[in-house]
Each structure stands twice: as structure tokens, then as C-alpha cells.
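Protein modeling request. Please complete all fields; requests missing the sequence field cannot be processed.
Requester role: graduate student
Desired output: 3D structure, C-alpha cell encoding
Chains: 1
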Amino acid sequence: MSLTVSNSYKLIYWKDRIWKIGPDGKFIPLRDENGDIKKNPLTGQIEYEFLEDGTRVNAKRLNHMDEGIYMAHDLIVEMQATIRRMQIQMELDGRVPGNSGTFADTLDGSTNKIVLDKAMTDIIEAVAIGTTELRVASVEGFTAFTQVTIFDDVANEDVVITEVGTDFIKVHALKNAYKKGAKVARSNVQIDTVNAEMGVGDWQTYNVELVEVV
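Delivered output (214 residues):
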């Protein structure tokens, strides 16, 4: 929704009534063609001469003002709604650093600011329950104080990296044991752009047969 300001409201430019003042410092009574002092036919009060008649108050002008107040009120309500949406956008951005406030993905390959962190490596030595240091094939893409998922074909868990070395990653104590070749990944998600679906990546083993060629 975009804010628009109507141009239909025109300023009235109200003017004051300015009275004439006589040499004695008093108002000068208004007289008719016969020299008689004129009186207001409704109030019976004496009318006086003026330099500027001023803008009269009537229903047309008051309704015009009423319309302007309503238009301003309508604009304020619309502006409040827009500001609220901006606050929500900023809140999302604050809660998801680096996400620029975008919290959705169409899963069609066009991520619109959201980029899936695909950093992944293999554990090169089997680990037991309670292990905190993982020997890995690569530490590229991993940083301390970020969360990773560790998984193989039996178990999986999410842990926080506490330190990244040259060939190892330290994490909080593992709750499960993992085989050699288990994955350490920033995300174990696989995106299907054909069906626009988000799935869970799997861990698998391969059989390699060596054949001697003579």
C-alpha cells in the first residue's frame, strides 16, 4: 500500500475583520444613506465601519474544514499501518542477521535474498558420545558460534561450534556416536525446485569395487 495525499482540499485563507477606529479611539458606527446608524437586523446591535470585512463563518466553510480533518485522519491511519509493517520488517531483519528482513523462500531457485548455507564436510574419524572435537576433511565455510547439524544413517543432532581449527571443529559434547564419513553441515536441507519443496538431506555409503587390470 502506498501513501497518497489528495489534492482536492484547497486552503480557505481566512481573513480577520478589521474595524475602523475614530479619533477618540472608539469604533465608528456604520450609517445608511440617510445618516442613520445601522443596526444588525437579527441582533439589534449597532454595526461599525471596517477596513476588512473578514471571512464569514458558514456551513459550507465548516464542512470544508471537516472534510480536511477527515482526510488528514485517514492519511494518519494509513501511515500508522505502513509504519507498523516497517517495524515488523526491521524486527525480522534484527532477528535474522544478514537476511535483510526477508523471511520466505519460493523454493524455485530464485531465493530473493535468502541464501542456503551449503557448507558441509565429512568426519574423517569415528566419534563417540560426549566427543567435543571432530576431525574433519575441511573447515571451509564454518565459523565459531554458529549451529551445525551432524548426521549419519543412524542418528543426527544440532550442535553449536565453539572453535574452528585447521583440520578440526570443536562443538558442545555430542549426544550420539557417529561413524567415519558422517556429515557436518550448516544445513542438511535439500531443495526440490521442481516441486518447490524443502526436504531433508540423507547420509549414504557407497561400495567401491577394485578391479585389477592386467
